[in-house]
Design goal:
Length: 51
């Protein structure tokens, strides 16, 4: 593998890691009472799902 290709792959891996880290952070610390879609909160969605 060429050095340029390896460098590009490293940059892509770092970008992917940063994006996934941000996604996990948002997912973990989301407000369960925040309205997400169709005026339904995450908590309400879970309640309907469990019903």
């Amino acid at each position: 593998m060429s050095d340029k290709h390896s460098d590009d792959l490293s940059w892509d891996a770092e970008d992917l890691h940063e994006a996934l880290t941000q996604l996990v952070r948002v997912y973990q610390f989301r407000d369960r009472d925040r309205i997400c879609s169709y005026d339904v909160s995450v908590t309400q969605c879970y309640a309907v799902e469990a019903w």
